[in-house]
C-alpha cells in the first residue's frame, strides 16, 4: 500500500491483492465510481455503485467500522474521487490501483455479462 499525506489527510493506494483480502474479510466497503453502464457490463461482486458524475462526499458513510476503498476502470477516476473526498474533509480514504483492468489482469473473480444471453454471470479466477 502506498500512502500520500495532503494537508493532514491521508490517501492510500491499495493493490488489487490488498483490496481482495480486505474485501473477503469484510473489512472494507468497495465503491465503484464508474458509470452504471460499465458497472452493469462487469463489476466486482458486492461492490457498491456511486458514479463519479454523481459523487457527493457528504453522503459517504463513516469509516468507524469499515474503510472506504474506491475503484474505477483504471484507477484514474477513483483517485480523483478519493481526492475530492479528502477535499471535503475525510481524513483517510483509499482507492484501488489499476481499477477493474488490474482486477481482471490479476484474474480475480467478478460478475461479467454472458455475451450470448446478455445475462450476468460469475467469472471465476483462472
TrEMBL record:
Every Rhodanese domain range: 24-112
- Keywords attached to this entry: Transferase
Do the record's keywords include Transferase?
A: yes
Do the record's keywords include Ribonucleoprotein?
no
Which InterPro entries does this entry report, sorted A to Z? Answer: Rhodanese-like_dom, Rhodanese-like_dom_sf
Q: What Pfam families is this protein classified in?
A: Rhodanese (PF00581)
Signal sequence segment: none
Name one molecular function that GO assigns to this entry.
thiosulfate-cyanide sulfurtransferase activity
Tell me the domain of life: Bacteria
What PANTHER family does this protein map onto? Answer: THIOSULFATE SULFURTRANSFERASE RDL2, MITOCHONDRIAL-RELATED (PTHR44086), THIOSULFATE SULFURTRANSFERASE_RHODANESE-LIKE DOMAIN-CONTAINING PROTEIN 3 (PTHR44086:SF10)
Q: What is this protein called?
A: Rhodanese-related sulfurtransferase
Organism, scientific name: Thalassovita litoralis
